[in-house]
Design brief:
Helix content is 32%, strand content 24%. The two termini are 24 Å apart. The model has no long low-confidence stretch (mean pLDDT 90).
Length: 304
């Protein structure tokens, strides 16, 4: 009998809508592969969630994004229930989601990252800040949620009502280009350059059709592409990730060639929507979407 797969999707994070799109796309592809698929819009009530996973499926496909879905919380519950799940485990998920902690690990493994400091909410509008331009972002959100680029002349008052927790990560702005690398176990699938048609690669640019041009493979020197892939694989392993991840970079080639790479973060639950980058890179590497999600299911595990 075909494996039973429960696709966890939706949830209650700020990335709920994207998760619903990811989950629906993955469910359709898994059905195409012959799996017995059930979709569950994850409730915050733990008793209801456990009930939705009872009897336990053979595998949970974790299509949740954002806090509680990709920060180790849901992974811990599935470990307790001894249900295999896709993507990374508790520790890797928690470390990757906390951008400042992840950067400490990256730096220890020779991966360049932007300098940064974690500030309290009250310091964002009233405290001493670096010279602009600089970037302010949540410490533990994904999909560029809450990212602000503060430039010369901008009003810092826009940070007064910071809704993303007590802390924020402040980093220098790195000029140049946006690159991303998907990693599948111990293999980098490729390098994509992302060119927003206006502004920067924020939440809207990521998930609105026609807002961003995807260049795959990225038109960059081969040496830079190989370095980006090497850093992505190193970060994946250093965090203890498994399955599929995606590493995001800034590539500053504005003053000299070949330029310099800076890793921003590793996503342990990368988007799986029709506009998402991992399926796009997998297709370029010769792996169609049903084959990709099927591989993820067959390689699912837990730390029970």
């Amino acid at each position: 009998m075909a494996k039973s797969v429960t696709v966890l999707m939706g949830g209650w994070s700020v990335e709920r809508d994207v998760s619903l799109d990811s989950g629906a796309a993955c469910a359709t592809a898994l059905e195409h592969c012959g799996y017995r698929v059930t979709c569950v819009d994850a409730p915050r009530d733990i008793q209801k969630l456990i009930a939705a996973l009872t009897p336990a499926p053979d595998v949970v496909f974790n299509a949740l994004h954002g806090r509680y879905g990709e920060d180790g919380a849901i992974q811990g519950l599935l470990d307790i229930m001894a249900v295999p799940y896709t993507h990374s485990g508790v520790l890797a998920s928690a470390l990757a989601m906390n951008k400042q902690q992840a950067k400490t690990i990256f730096a220890a493994h020779g991966i360049p990252c932007p300098d940064g400091q974690v500030l309290k909410r009250a310091q964002l509008s009233g405290g001493e800040m670096p010279e602009p331009p600089y970037v302010v972002k949540p410490v533990n959100e994904g999909s560029s949620v809450g990212v602000h680029i503060i430039r010369t002349g901008d009003n810092r008052a826009l940070l007064e009502d910071w809704p993303y927790g007590c802390d924020a990560l402040v980093e220098p702005y790195i000029p140049g280009r946006e690159l991303t690398v998907a990693v599948m176990d111990d293999r980098a699938l490729g390098v994509t350059e992302l060119r927003p048609l206006q502004g920067f690669y924020d939440y809207e640019a990521k998930y609105t059709d026609g807002k961003t041009e995807h260049l795959c493979p990225a038109p960059i020197p081969d040496s830079v592409a190989e370095q980006a892939k090497s850093y992505a694989i190193t970060a994946h392993k250093a965090l203890g990730c498994r399955g599929v991840t995606r590493a995001d970079f800034r590539y500053d080639d504005t003053e000299a060639s070949p330029g310099a790479l800076s890793m921003l973060e590793v996503n342990t639950q990368p988007g799986m929507t029709p506009l998402s980058l991992v399926p796009e890179q997998a297709a370029h590497a010769g792996m169609e979407f049903p084959q990709l999600v099927g591989w993820m299911v067959e390689n699912a595990t837990c730390d029970a």
